[in-house]
C-alpha cells in the first residue's frame, strides 16, 4: 500500500488535524518520502533509537509511534537528534506519530484501552483540551474496591516490574472513573468537578498527593509507558485489517 494512502487514512481516522493547534507534537508523517510502498508496519510507544533499530531488524517499512521526534521542531539536527534520525533515512524507514489524537480517540485511544480493561460502561470523553479531549470517563457495572482497581491494572499492564502507586483518598467503593493516560494529573480537578471517584493516569506531579487528599479522590499512577501501549496496539490491529503485516515493539521503561 502506498505510504501516502496509509498516512491519509490514519490522519482521517485519528482526527489529526483537529489537534494541530493543541499539541506540541508534530503529528502525522514526521520522517519519510512523499511516496513509497509499504508492506510491513511496526508500532511502538516511543520513537527512539532502540525502537528504530528493532523496526529495521523486523524489516518494517513504516514505524507508527505515540511519542515521536519533533516537539515544536528542531533547531539543529546534530548529536543525539542526528543519531536518532540517521537510521530512519539510511534504512528507508518512515515514521508516523500520533500523540494527543491517539490519547483522545474514543475507540482506539489509550484511555479507551484502560476503560476496556476496567470494563467501564456509559463512557464519555474526558480531559478537555480546548475543543478536544485527551481521555475518557465511565462507570463500573458493579462498584469496585480500590484494591480491585489496582489488581486489575497490575494484572494486565507492563509496568516494567514497578508497583502501581495508589493515592488512597477516595470513597470506599469506586463507581465513576476518569482516565487520562501518560501524565494526566493536570486533570485531577476536572475529575473532582465531574464527581469521579478515581482518576487513573500514568505518572503524577508532586502536588497531586495533597490535591487528591484534600479533594477526597483516588488516584492510580500506573506508569506512563504502561498506560500508553493501548493506542498503538489498536493501530496495529487497524492497519492489519488493511492487509499489511504488522509487529508490536515492546520496550517498557518502568516509568
From TrEMBL:
- Residues that, per the record, bind a divalent metal cation: 66-67, 103, 224, 228
Question: Could you state one GO cellular component term attached to this entry?
Answer: cytoplasm
Molecular function GO labels: metal ion binding
Which UniProt keywords are listed?
Metal-binding
> Which protein are we looking at?
Nif3-like dinuclear metal center hexameric protein
Carries keyword Metal-binding? yes
Taxonomy, superkingdom: Archaea
Organism (species): Natrinema ejinorense
The family assignment reads: Belongs to the GTP cyclohydrolase I type 2/NIF3 family.
For this protein, the record's InterPro entries field holds:
DUF34/NIF3, DUF34/NIF3_sf
Q: Which Pfam families match?
A: DUF34_NIF3
> According to the entry, what is the taxonomic lineage of the organism?
Archaea, Methanobacteriati, Methanobacteriota, Stenosarchaea group, Halobacteria
Amino acid at each position: 500500500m502506498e505510504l501516502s494512502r496509509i498516512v491519509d487514512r490514519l490522519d482521517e481516522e485519528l482526527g489529526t488535524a483537529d489537534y494541530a493547534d493543541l499539541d506540541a507534537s508534530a503529528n502525522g508523517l514526521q520522517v519519510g518520502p512523499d511516496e513509497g510502498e509499504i508492506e510491513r508496519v511496526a508500532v511502538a510507544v516511543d520513537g527512539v533509537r532502540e525502537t528504530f533499530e528493532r523496526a529495521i531488524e523486523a524489516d518494517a517499512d513504516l514505524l507508527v509511534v505515540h511519542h515521536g521526534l519533533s516537539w515544536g521542531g528542531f533547531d539543529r539536527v546534530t548529536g543525539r537528534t542526528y543519531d536518532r534520525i540517521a537510521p530512519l533515512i539510511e534504512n528507508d524507514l518512515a515514521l508516523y506519530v500520533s500523540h494527543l489524537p491517539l490519547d483522545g480517540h474514543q475507540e482506539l485511544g489509550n484511555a479507551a484501552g484502560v476503560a476496556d480493561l476496567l470494563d467501564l460502561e456509559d463512557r464519555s470523553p474526558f480531559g478537555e483540551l480546548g475543543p478536544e479531549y485527551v481521555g475518557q470517563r465511565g462507570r463500573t457495572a458493579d462498584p469496585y474496591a480500590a484494591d480491585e482497581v489496582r489488581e486489575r491494572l497490575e494484572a494486565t499492564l507492563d509496568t516494567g516490574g514497578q508497583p502501581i502507586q495508589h493515592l488512597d483518598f477516595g470513597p470506599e467503593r469506586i463507581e465513576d472513573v476518569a482516565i487520562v493516560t501518560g501524565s494526566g494529573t493536570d486533570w485531577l480537578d476536572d475529575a473532582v468537578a465531574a464527581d469521579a471517584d478515581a482518576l487513573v493516569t500514568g505518572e503524577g506531579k508532586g502536588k497531586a498527593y495533597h490535591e487528591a487528599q484534600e479533594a477526597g479522590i483516588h488516584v492510580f499512577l500506573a506508569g506512563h509507558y504502561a498506560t500508553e501501549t493501548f493506542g498503538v496496539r489498536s493501530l496495529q490491529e487497524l492497519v492489519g485489517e488493511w492487509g499489511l503485516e504488522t509487529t508490536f515493539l515492546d520496550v517498557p521503561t518502568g516509568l
